[in-house]
Specification:
- The N and C termini lie far apart (42 Å).
- Helix 4 crosses helix 6 and helix 5 packs antiparallel against helix 6.
- By secondary structure, the protein is mainly α.
- Strands 1-3-2 form a three-stranded antiparallel beta sheet.
Length: 223
C-alpha cells in the first residue's frame, strides 16, 4: 500500500510540474530549490525529487546541485534538430499505421481533431490550432501500433510543445500546409504506406523551414 501511495504522489507531482512547464506557467529559466517546489505543490520532497528526475530525463528541467531545478529553454539548434528527428520518426509511424489492418485502425479521434482544426483556422484561433496540431501528431504516433516509437515521438513533442506554440502564434498561421494532415490520414486509411510515409516526412520538413524563418526574423535564440 505504501509503495502504491508513493507512486501516486510521484505521478501527481510529475504531471502537475510537466503541465506547468509545457503551458509556460513555469517559464524557461525558472529555477527553485526542491523544498520550495515541494511547498508549492503541497507535497513532501521525496516524490517531488523523483518527479524532477523524470522531467530531467525528458529534457524539460536541469537539476542543479544545491540550487534545485531549472526549467530548460529550447534553443534554435534544439528546435531544428528535433524537427529533423520527428520528420524521420513520424514518417515511420505514418507508414506503419498504413500497414495496420483496417479493422484495427481507430481513426475517429484523429478525424475529430481534423474537423476541430478546420474550425480553429476558420476563426483565426492559432492558439487553439497549435494545441490541436500537437494532439494530431500524438494521435498519429498512436496509430502505428509500435509503443516504443510512439513514446519516442511523444518525448520530442513534449520538448518542442512550448516553442511550437509560441512560434506558431508569432506566425499567425500553421507552419506547414494544413491539408497535409488530411492527406496523411487519407493515405493511412487506404493502406498506402509509401504516400503516408512521404507526406508525413515532407510535412515536418516544411514546418522546419518555417520555424527557421520565424526564429531568424523574430531574433529569438531560444524559447
Amino acid at each position: 500500500m505504501l509503495a502504491k501511495i508513493k507512486f501516486t504522489q510521484v505521478d501527481s507531482a510529475y504531471g502537475r510540474l510537466k503541465n506547468e512547464i509545457l503551458q509556460g506557467v513555469l517559464p524557461p529559466g525558472y529555477q527553485a530549490p526542491e523544498p520550495d517546489i515541494a511547498n508549492r505543490l503541497g507535497m513532501s520532497r521525496t516524490p517531488v525529487r523523483e518527479a524532477l528526475i523524470r522531467l530531467e530525463a525528458e529534457g524539460l528541467v536541469d537539476l542543479v546541485p544545491r540550487r534545485g531545478a531549472r526549467v530548460v529553454a529550447i534553443s534554435r539548434k534544439d528546435i531544428c534538430e528535433i524537427f529533423e528527428i520527428l520528420a524521420a520518426l513520424e514518417s515511420l509511424a505514418a507508414g506503419a499505421a498504413a500497414r495496420v489492418e483496417t479493422e484495427d485502425l481507430h481513426l475517429d479521434d484523429i478525424g475529430r481533431v481534423l474537423s476541430e482544426s478546420g474550425s480553429a483556422l476558420a476563426s483565426s484561433d492559432i492558439g487553439a490550432w497549435a494545441n490541436l496540431d500537437d494532439t494530431f501528431h500524438r494521435l498519429l504516433a498512436g496509430l502505428c501500433g509500435n509503443v516504443r516509437l510512439e513514446a519516442e515521438i511523444a518525448g520530442f513533442l513534449d520538448q518542442i510543445y512550448r516553442a511550437n506554440t509560441v512560434l506558431l502564434r508569432l506566425n499567425k498561421a500553421p507552419a506547414a500546409n494544413v491539408d497535409d494532415h488530411r492527406k496523411i490520414v487519407e493515405a493511412i486509411a487506404r493502406g498506402d504506406d509509401v504516400t503516408a510515409f512521404e507526406c508525413a516526412r515532407q510535412h515536418r520538413l516544411s514546418g522546419l523551414k518555417t520555424m527557421k524563418t520565424l526564429l531568424q526574423t523574430s531574433g529569438l535564440s531560444q524559447v
